[in-house]
Amino acid sequence: MAAVLSRDELEHMADTLHELLEALHEELADELNEIEHVRHLLKRHAHGQGDRQATLEVARRLNLEHMRHHLESIASCNQALERINRGRFGRCRCCGEAIELNRLRADPLIDTCLSCQS
Ligand SMILES: [Zn+2]
């Protein structure tokens, strides 16, 4: 089996993945801060203080689906980096064939070829 990606390209992919990981971690940290904020506001309510409307507003901004999605993306990033380390990057997880390069370049997190995707 011929190499799927050049070394330079693999390194570039790894850089991209590290940047993505960093961005995802920052987003998660922000989201955790928001939750902390809501907890703080709720605690004030327990003591009869604070603006109920404002608390609802902050709580409404919390999006657990987003957080779950961010967590899953972080896991996918780490798996892709591990595939790079093991020399398995760019190979389909199911059939072992080379994943289409244009798809891989568009999304380095992809781990199946087109025919195995569905
Ligand atoms: Zn496949």
Automatic annotation (TrEMBL):
Pfam family, one: zf-dskA_traR
Signal peptide location: none
Zinc finger (dksA C4-type): 92-116
Residues annotated as domain Zinc finger DksA/TraR C4-type: 87-117
Classification via PROSITE patterns: ZF_DKSA_2
Annotated coiled-coil segments of the chain: 7-41
Keyword GTP-binding part of the UniProt annotation: no
Keywords associated with the record: Coiled coil, Metal-binding, Zinc, Zinc-finger
Name of the protein in question: Transcriptional regulator, TraR/DksA family
Species annotation: Marinobacterium sediminicola
